[in-house]
Amino acid sequence: MKVFQIIADSSLSGGPLHVFDLAKNLNKKKFAIAVICPSGPIVAKFQSLAGVKVYPVELPSAFDKKAILKIKEIISSAKNSLRAGGPLSEPELRSSGASAPEEAKIILHAHGTRAGILALKLTDLGVKLIYTEHLWTKDYHLKNMLREKLQLWLLKKVAQKAVKIVAVSKAVRDFLFLTNIAQLPKLQVIYNGVETPIAPTGRTKGKIIIGSVGSLNEHKGYEYLIAAVSQVRKDLPTLEVHIIGSGPLEKKLKSLNNKLKADVKFIGHVDDLAGQLSQFALYIQPSLSESFGRTVVQAMALGLPVITTRVGGLGEIVRDKVEGLLVPPKNPQQLSWAILILAKNKKMRQNMGKAAKKRAEFFSLAKMVNQTEQLYEKMV
After folding, report:
1. I want to staple 176 with a disulfide (CB 3.0 to 4.6 A). Which of 11, 182, 312, 353 is the partner?
2. Per-residue pLDDT tens for 161-180?
3. Residues 6+ apart with CB under 8 A from 80
């Protein structure tokens, strides 16, 4: 079975990293894995994987004729190769359920709206389309309402063509169903899986560091975290607060930080995320929308209690007053209150951190890969 993973984002954010984890960990004896994506930081990671074919294709839009033609050529070539007996041998095909090379199936697994819309132009090649939604929940919106309506209308077309739609959380599944984009029988929740980070060597003694990780964009809600920290400073002037990441709002957020005298430190991109997180005493996710919360689970796996907003899939990961505290979005007052409670109470942080570490096991990478493999196998 040949599986093409296609994504229009080549950054090191959640969606591309999700595809990387699949490409790396899917059973290569059962599946011949290929990845189609634009050039960018994630491509080098894909190219480092043994047994994974990478096709860098620029995808300026979901309707780009040049990109569609190139991808059609790639898939047609793969079909011809499978009919001829490669890249999987005939015994391997038999063990996966196919009785002859020409019966081998091609699955196109599209991730994200742009890749999904582009995939509509490829279904005439006889591929089976699986679509994973990584973004849309009831809390997510585009600035341009007309563009939002068009994108959701096209997403419905994708759902009609797809054999299965994977939602990365129940919040995503519920949105797709309640907006009549997809019917329940086609929808399947497969939570993002997170590889357990290397255990920390120990946090820096003598100071409390708290922080967050994410793209500096309008959906992450960092302006509300900065406002909350400025209030916290009155009670905890020595508290150290880090925001790890970069993005289009970096200049605006730094200006707000200076104006409110919040003294938040902007760290930028880091290669050793687990090492940075291991220095935290508390993790914060102040998002306005969040389909899942990959970094939240990574922080929990390191034994960190968390403060998150009640949006999207975050409430499916964190249980209020068990692994952390949940607060309303866009509410600096409630966020500052939660920070003060946990920053001042070491015993509470320790208890919630233990619960968080155990809870993170539910969102394992092995489970995500296994459920995805089972989905692929049902396609033949």
Report:
1. 182
2. 999 999 999 999 999 999 99
3. none
The residue count of the chain comes to 380
Contact 297, 192 (CB under 8 A): yes
Query: What is the spatial order of strands in the sheet that 187-189 belongs to?
Result: 52-56, 32-37, 2-7, 106-111, 128-133, 164-167, 187-189
Alpha helices (H) in 26-64, listed in sequence order: 41-47
Backbone angles phi and psi of 303, in degrees to 5? 85, 25
Render pLDDT for 69-108 as a digit per residue (tens, 0 to 9).
999 999 998 888 766 555 444 444 444 444 444 445 899 9
| One fold for 2-193+364-377 and 209-363 | yes
What lies within 8 Å, CB to CB, of 380 at 6+ separation is 1, 96, 97, 98, 105
* Most distant CA pair in the chain, distance: 72
Q: How far apart are CA 67 and CA 362, in angstroms?
A: 38
CATH of 209-363, one of 3.30.450.20, 3.10.25.10, 3.40.50.2000, 3.40.50.1820: 3.40.50.2000
Contacts 24+ apart (CB under 8 A), 40-48: 40/9, 40/10, 40/11, 41/10, 41/11, 41/12, 42/9, 42/10, 42/11, 42/12, 42/16, 42/17, 43/10, 45/12, 45/20, 46/20
Domain ranges (residues) in the chain: 2-193+364-377, 209-363
pLDDT in tens, 323-377: 999 999 999 999 999 999 999 999 999 999 999 999 999 999 999 999 999 999 9
Nearest to 77 by CA among 2, 12, 172, 177: 2
- With tokens 């290397």, the residue in question is 198
* pTM of the predicted protein model: 0.91
